[in-house]
From TrEMBL:
The keyword Electron transport does not apply. Pathway: Cofactor biosynthesis; adenosylcobalamin biosynthesis. Pfam families: CbiM. This is Cobalt transport protein CbiM. Keywords: Cell membrane, Cobalamin biosynthesis, Cobalt, Cobalt transport, Ion transport, Membrane, Transmembrane, Transmembrane helix, Transport. Its main location: membrane. The gene is cbiM.
């Protein structure tokens, strides 16, 4: 993983395309709006993360793995819409393991580090990027996983669909953000959203399928080598299911 990260830093130094929405691309009013929307989720996520690490410090390595998984996958970018790009997100795994609020913090930190270290994304657009990848995606993954598990009990199917559909929803949200900021002269928001979503779909659909399959492989690895941590997480989820989303 260290070798891959080093290659990403050295091999992709050009900032022509930024992760999700690049620095300075959004009008200032929209950049501020998405920061305001994203911050409450981040604060709640910090509180949740603090409770998890204090009560179960042995889960810190698994938290680190979920963050690293998101960092490496989301750094594998393919240029797409001007000012943006397509890539896996890697947030589905952490959302299934720890819940959407915890993944909101991990995903936001991933976006911050990539903006500072890899010139992917930016600080002004961090709120918008965090909302699409670190908030909307993880919440979708968590709900989809629990819906499928409750309906069928097929865990591998649930994990695949949670990761893949969370990836796709991230880009639906990104398309909405771009369409709101740059409505088409003819057709307005709808025409702009349709254009952005159609361009993203060319690369994002196969990427979403690939991410779903990779997430299942990582889950199988965790079941083989970290069964105690997974059992502990299930116990935590059971204790908190009645009053909050883990």
């Amino acid at each position: 993983m260290a070798v891959v990260s080093f290659y990403l830093v050295v091999g992709f130094p050009k900032p022509a395309y930024a992760m999700h929405i690049m620095e300075g691309f959004l009008p200032i009013e929209w950049a501020i709006f998405w920061w305001v929307v994203a911050l409450p989720f981040f604060v709640l996520g910090l509180l949740r993360l603090n409770r998890i690490t204090k009560a179960n410090p042995e889960l810190k390595l698994l938290l680190g793995l979920a963050g690293a998984f998101a960092f490496v996958l989301s750094a594998l970018k393919i240029p797409s819409v001007t000012g943006s790009c397509s890539h896996p997100t890697g947030t589905g795994l952490g959302a299934v393991l720890f819940g959407p609020l915890t993944m909101t913090v991990l995903g936001s930190l991933v976006l911050l580090f990539q903006a500072l270290l890899l010139a992917h994304g930016g600080l002004t657009t961090l709120g918008a990027n965090a909302f699409s990848m670190a908030i909307a995606g993880p919440f979708a993954a968590y709900w989809i996983y629990n819906l499928i598990m409750g309906a069928s009990g097929k865990q591998k199917t649930a994990i695949f669909l949670a990761a893949a559909l969370a990836n796709l929803l991230t880009y639906v949200i990104t398309s909405i953000q771009l369409a709101l900021a740059f409505p088409a002269p003819v057709g307005g928001f709808i025409a702009s959203f349709t254009k952005f979503a159609a361009i993203f779909a060319v690369t994002q659909i196969p990427l979403a399928i690939s991410e779903g399959l990779l997430t299942v492989l990582v889950w199988n690895w965790l079941q083989s080598y970290n069964p105690q941590e997974l059992e502990l997480l299930q116990l935590i989820k059971g204790r908190n299911h009645s009053n909050e989303s883990i």
